[in-house]
């Protein structure tokens, strides 16, 4: 069994992201940001955007912990207090005493770490297998790119969206509203072949430049998203897009009309069983019910006047 410490941005989205890269994900417990789950094979946690830490789950009580999983006799105790009224230092001390009684040694320099998450009513003991490298994501964050767009979504959320869409090595992804290429950048980082289009030429050039800046290739064209089929003849394994939003956009004369037209057009772009992940500022979308199943919907609070809604569709034909 595994335990993941999820980002607090959207717990459901973070869980869905783990599900999308695991085989046979089965949640056994969700406690705030802590999820304990089963998976037939160990997920590659390094692919995830919204998981901060992960480990092998060892139990909820120190007595349950199998210390043979550690390589040495020297154990470092690391406690993260998430929401508990317990004093972390006193808790660590008690764990240390238990460990010593077992004939093991508490060693703050040891690489054998017993990581404990304290929630309101529970303790979760793990052997860590993954700690997210936030600096890697920060390197690709919007302000760090040569071509900057303020509307580009946070790179960890972008990673989660492309994972949920089914991005993995060998698949093709299209973002028909690519802007500065934020979603495509995260898709390329997981080894996907990426394609983009934007109605604004400067965005297309910006996307190409931004992907190049991080060593990735993208095929991107200037086109209305509603004409992109004429440019790219083949269907894609998945489509991800953050649709234009807000009232100020010059392009956006009729947002509702654009959203609807696009949703009725996008089935022509994606292969059967492929996913289409759409971000927008509408809580409800009109979509073709025969062609699509709405599998999921997540909302992320951005700031006081903005919440972004993300819809996950599966193409039936
Ligand atoms: C929210 S931004 C996308 C941001 C992008 N995900 C990023 O990381 O920078 C929406 C983009 O849609 C483009 N756009 C608006 N109408 C369009 C249309 N009809 N066809 C294609 N692109 C369009 C805009 O130029 C803008 O770059």
Descriptive account of the structure:
With 317 residues, this protein is of the alpha/beta class. The chain folds into two domains: 2-132, VC0802-like, CATH 3.30.2130.30; 135-315, Rossmann fold. Helices cover 25% and strands 33% of the residues. It has eight helices and 15 strands. The chain has an eight-stranded mixed beta sheet. It has a seven-stranded mixed beta sheet with strand order 11-10-9-12-13-15-14, covered by helices on one side. Helix 2 links the parallel strand 5 (74-81) and strand 6. Helix 1 (11-21) packs across helix 4 (155-165). The longest helix has 14 residues, at 88-101. The mean pLDDT is 94. S-adenosylmethionine (SAM) is lined by residues 149, 151-152, 176-183, 197-200, 203, 224-225, 242, 244, 251.
Shape: elongated
H/E element order: EHEEEEHEEEHHEHEHEHEHEEE
Structural class assignment = alpha/beta
| N-end to C-end Cα span | 36 Å
Radius of gyration: 22 Å
Strand-residue proportion: 25-35%
The CATH superfamily of the largest domain is Vaccinia Virus protein VP39
Q: Provide the CATH top-level class of the largest domain.
A: Alpha Beta
Q: Architecture of the largest domain, according to CATH?
A: 3-Layer(aba) Sandwich
Q: What's the mean pLDDT score?
A: 94
For the sheet with most strands, the description reads: 8 strands, mixed
Oligomer: single chain
Associated small molecules:
S-adenosylmethionine
Summarize the amount of helix as a percent range: 10-25%
Give me the CATH fold name of the largest domain. Answer: Rossmann fold
Can you list the strand order of the major beta sheet? 2-3-1-4-8-7-5-6
- Number of domains in the coordinates? 2
Low-confidence stretches: none
């Amino acid at each position: 069994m595994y335990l993941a410490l999820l980002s607090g941005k959207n717990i459901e989205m973070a869980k869905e992201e783990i599900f999308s890269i695991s085989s046979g994900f089965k949640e056994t417990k969700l406690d705030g940001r802590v999820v304990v789950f089963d998976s037939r094979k160990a997920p590659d946690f390094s692919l995830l955007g919204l998981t901060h830490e992960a480990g092998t789950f060892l139990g909820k009580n120190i007595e349950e912990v199998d210390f043979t999983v550690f390589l040495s006799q020297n154990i470092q105790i690391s406690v993260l207090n998430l929401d508990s009224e317990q004093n972390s230092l006193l808790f660590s001390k008690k764990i240390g005493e238990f460990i010593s009684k077992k004939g093991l040694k508490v060693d703050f320099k040891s690489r054998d770490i017993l990581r404990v998450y304290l929630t309101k009513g529970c303790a979760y003991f793990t052997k860590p297998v993954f700690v997210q490298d936030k600096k890697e994501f920060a390197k690709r964050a919007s302000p760090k790119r040569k071509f900057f767009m303020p509307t580009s979504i946070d790179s960890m959320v972008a990673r989660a969206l492309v994972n949920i869409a089914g991005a993995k090595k060998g698949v093709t992804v299209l973002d028909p509203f690519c802007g500065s290429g934020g979603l495509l950048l995260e898709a390329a980082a997981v080894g996907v072949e990426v394609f983009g289009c934007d109605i604004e030429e400067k965005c297309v050039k910006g996307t190409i430049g931004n992907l190049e800046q991080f060593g990735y290739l993208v095929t991107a064209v200037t086109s209305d998203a509603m004409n992109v089929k004429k440019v790219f003849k083949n269907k894609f394994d998945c489509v991800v897009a953050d649709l234009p939003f807000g009232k100020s956009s010059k392009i956006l004369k009729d947002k509702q009309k654009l959203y609807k037209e696009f949703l009725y057009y996008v089935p022509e772009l994606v292969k059967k069983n492929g996913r289409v992940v759409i971000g927008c500022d509408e809580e409800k979308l009109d979509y073709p019910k025969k062609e699509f199943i709405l599998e999921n919907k997540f909302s992320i609070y951005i700031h006081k006047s903005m919440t972004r809604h993300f819809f996950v569709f599966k193409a039936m034909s």
